C-alpha cells in the first residue's frame, strides 16, 4: 500500500510525500559448511516507510500520458517475528523471536500517470527502497548487503486543480 500527497511545483516537477506499508513472509536459511549446524525458520515481516520525493515528469501537467522519474529519502521501520522453526540441526544460533529496526532509506521510482477523467489518473509505479538490513544483522554470521524492497504498484491519483 502506498498513500501519497504531492504538489506540482512546475509543469514538469512535483514534490511528493509517501507512506508505504507492506508485509512479507520470509524463510531464513542458515548452514555452516564446517559443522552440522543449520536451521530454516519462517518469519512474518512488515515495513512502514515515510519518504519525501522529488519527481520529474516528461510531459506537461495537461498531458493525458505522463511518465515520470522520482527519487527521495526518508525513514523505514522494519518489524519481524518468528512464525515457526521448519528444520534445525546441531545447536544453531537463531535470531530473536521478535526484532525491529528504524533507519534511513533511499527510494528510486519510475512510473506513468494515465488520465482517465479530468480529476482522476491511473498510476503504475515501480520502486526500489534501499536501507540497512536489520534481518542480516540478526544472522550468524551477519549478512553484508543492504535490504532492497522492490514494489510494483497500481492505483489511482485524484487531482485537485486550482
What are the main properties of this structure?
single chain; 162 residues; mainly beta; Porin; seven-stranded antiparallel beta sheet; 1 helix; 2% helix; elongated
Description:
It is a single chain. The protein has 162 residues and is mainly beta. The protein has one helix at 134-137, and strands at residues 2-10, 13-31, 38-57, 65-89, 98-117, 120-131, 147-158. It contains 1 helix and 7 strands. It is elongated, with a radius of gyration of 20 Å. The chain is 2% helix and 72% strand. The mean pLDDT is 91. It has one domain: Porin, CATH 2.40.160. Strands 1-2-3-4-5-6-7 form a 7-stranded antiparallel β-sheet.
List the helices and strands and how they pair.
Elements: E1 2-10, E2 13-31, E3 38-57, E4 65-89, E5 98-117, E6 120-131, H1 134-137, E7 147-158
Antiparallel strand pairs: 1-2, 2-3, 3-4, 4-5, 5-6, 6-7
**Main sheet: which strands, in order across?**
1-2-3-4-5-6-7
Which whole number gives the mean pLDDT?
A: 91
How many beta-strand segments?
A: 7
Number of helices: 1
In short:
The protein has 162 residues and is mainly β. Helix content is 2%, strand content 72%.
Amino acid at each position: 500500500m502506498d498513500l501519497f500527497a504531492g504538489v506540482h511545483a512546475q509543469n514538469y516537477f512535483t514534490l511528493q510525500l509517501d507512506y508505504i506499508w507492506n508485509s512479507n513472509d520470509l524463510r531464513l536459511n542458515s548452514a555452516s559448511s564446517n559443522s552440522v549446524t543449520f536451521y530454516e525458520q519462517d518469519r512474518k515481516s512488515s515495513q512502514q516507510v515515510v519518504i519525501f520525493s522529488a519527481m520529474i515528469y516528461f510531459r506537461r501537467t495537461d498531458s493525458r500520458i505522463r511518465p515520470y522519474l522520482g527519487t527521495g529519502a526518508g525513514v523505514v521501520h522494519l518489524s519481524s517475528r518468528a512464525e515457526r522453526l521448519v528444520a534445525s540441526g546441531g545447536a544453531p544460533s537463531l535470531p530473536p523471536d521478535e526484532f525491529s529496526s528504524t533507519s534511513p532509506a533511499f527510494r528510486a521510482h519510475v512510473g506513468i500517470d494515465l488520465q482517465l477523467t479530468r480529476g482522476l489518473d491511473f498510476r503504475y509505479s515501480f520502486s526500489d527502497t534501499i536501507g540497512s538490513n536489520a534481518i542480516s544483522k540478526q544472522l550468524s554470521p551477519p549478512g553484508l548487503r543492504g535490504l532492497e524492497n522492490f514494489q510494483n504498484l497500481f492505483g489511482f491519483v485524484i487531482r485537485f486543480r486550482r
